[in-house]
């Protein structure tokens, strides 16, 4: 039996804080001190039962902190997964708030059963308490305060209820903000999402590059890290169109045309299709309409708006029949 000295007892536990830079890949690490409706994992940090929280003890030592998260959805990302009696339902779009230290940082859209999303934000030194507890919350867009009622009204019929249910927190990276970040002028649609400026449903492959299909009919423009892509001034997002796959075309079309004939027809039709139309842009925090400019050229629309600084923006996009809107690229001014 191990003895004790002084005021120590055998029941005392030494809590080892996470010391940046650190990659947290498991829910069994000692620094994960607080969980609320998060089931700890061994190869992931954990899986949310529903909207919940993870709190990490971090040795920040009075310095600012950069927080990078990886979230994902899979076949188990449904309500009731933790009870063994999952609720039936399709892979509807999820709209999730990511908060830290009580403040909204970014929002993510997850669509489908194989989608990954990145989140990135900085915490100022004064936001980290003396005990070093850094809290990360994932909340359904319908929960909590500080979200515009107009936003909730519009998205209520477009998104899955209990959107955080079963969502995985795959990785948490804690680091000091670098002095200078590489800041490209242009990113393709997928890289815009990987950079966390855009969230359009999550990427099935985080290494993917190229055009990003906007299947949800909306996407998020997030506040991003200082000195990174889209962080200052204005951004221009180049939206295009893509022919819907044959499986999305009404049955009457499939009966009349073979898949090859339909593809030829769709291609010709797409060339004559107008570009996507941005219907509105709303501030997620207060629900107020945000000013923007859109310029159409053939089947391409350029959306220009100010880079958000304190609240994500929700962009609603409409495209013509037989076509889906796409994000081709983003330009940071």
Task: Give the beta-strand count.
Answer: 19
Rg, rounded, reads 22 Å
**What is the fold named in CATH at topology level of the largest domain?**
Jelly Rolls
Derived from helix and strand composition plus strand pairing, the structural class reads: mainly beta
- The geometry reads as globular
N-to-C series of helices and strands: EEEEEEEEHEEHEEEEHHEEEEE
Helix content: under 10%
Q: Which CATH architecture of the largest domain is right?
A: Sandwich
- Compute the average pLDDT: 88
Number of domains: 2
CATH class value of the largest domain: Mainly Beta
Question: What percentage of the residues does DSSP assign to strands (E)?
Answer: 35-45%
Major sheet = 9 strands, antiparallel
- Continuous helix count: 4
Uncertain regions spanning at least 5 consecutive residues: 1-7, 268-272
Explained architecture:
With 333 residues, the chain is mainly beta. The chain has two domains: 15-197, Jelly Rolls (Sandwich); 202-332, Jelly Rolls. The protein contains four helices and 19 strands. The protein has helices at residues 149-155, 189-194, 251-256, 259-271, and strands at 22-24, 32-40, 46-57, 65-73, 94-100, 103-110, 115-123, 133-140, 168-175, 186-188, 198-199, 212-213, 218-221, 234-243, 277-283, 293-297, 300-306, 313-318, 323-332. The strands form three sheets. Strands 1, 2, 3, 4, 5, 6, 7, 8 and 9 form a nine-stranded antiparallel beta sheet that branches. A hairpin with a 5-residue loop joins strand 2 (32-40) and strand 3 (46-57). The longest helix has 13 residues, at 259-271. The protein is globular. The chain starts with 21 loop residues before the first strand and ends with a strand.
């Amino acid at each position: 039996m191990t003895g004790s000295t002084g005021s120590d007892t055998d029941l005392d536990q030494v809590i080892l804080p996470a010391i940046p830079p650190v990659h947290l890949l498991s829910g069994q690490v000692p620094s994960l001190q607080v969980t609320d409706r998060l089931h700890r994992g061994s190869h992931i940090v954990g899986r949310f039962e529903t909207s919940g929280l993870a709190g990490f003890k971090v040795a920040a030592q009075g310095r600012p902190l950069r927080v990078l998260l990886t979230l994902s959805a899979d076949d188990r990302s449904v309500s009731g997964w933790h009870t063994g009696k999952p609720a039936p339902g399709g892979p509807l779009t999820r709209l999730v708030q990511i908060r830290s230290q009580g403040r909204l940082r970014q929002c993510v859209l997850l669509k489908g059963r194989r989608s990954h999303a990145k989140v990135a934000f900085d915490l100022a030194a004064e936001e980290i308490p003396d005990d070093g507890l850094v809290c990360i919350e994932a909340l359904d867009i319908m929960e909590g305060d500080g979200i515009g009622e107009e936003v909730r009204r519009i998205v209520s019929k477009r998104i899955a209820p209990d959107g955080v249910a079963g969502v995985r927190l795959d990785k948490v990276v804690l680091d000091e903000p670098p002095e200078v970040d590489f800041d490209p002028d242009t990113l393709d649609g997928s890289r815009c999402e990987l950079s966390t400026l855009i969230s359009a449903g999550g990427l099935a492959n985080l290494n993917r590059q190229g055009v990003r299909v906007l299947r949800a009919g909306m996407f998020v423009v997030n506040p991003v890290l200082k000195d990174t892509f889209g962080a200052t001034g204005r951004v221009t997002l180049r939206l295009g169109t893509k022919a819907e796959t044959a499986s999305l075309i009404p049955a009457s079309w499939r009966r009349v045309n073979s898949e090859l004939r339909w593809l030829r027809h769709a291609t010709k039709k797409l060339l004559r299709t107008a570009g996507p139309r941005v219907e509105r842009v709303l501030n997620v925090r207060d629900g107020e309409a945000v000013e923007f400019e859109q310029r159409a050229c053939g089947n391409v629309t350029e959306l220009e708006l100010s880079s958000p600084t304190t609240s994500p923006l929700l962009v609603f996009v409409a495209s013509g029949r037989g076509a889906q809107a796409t994000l081709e690229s983003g330009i940071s001014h």
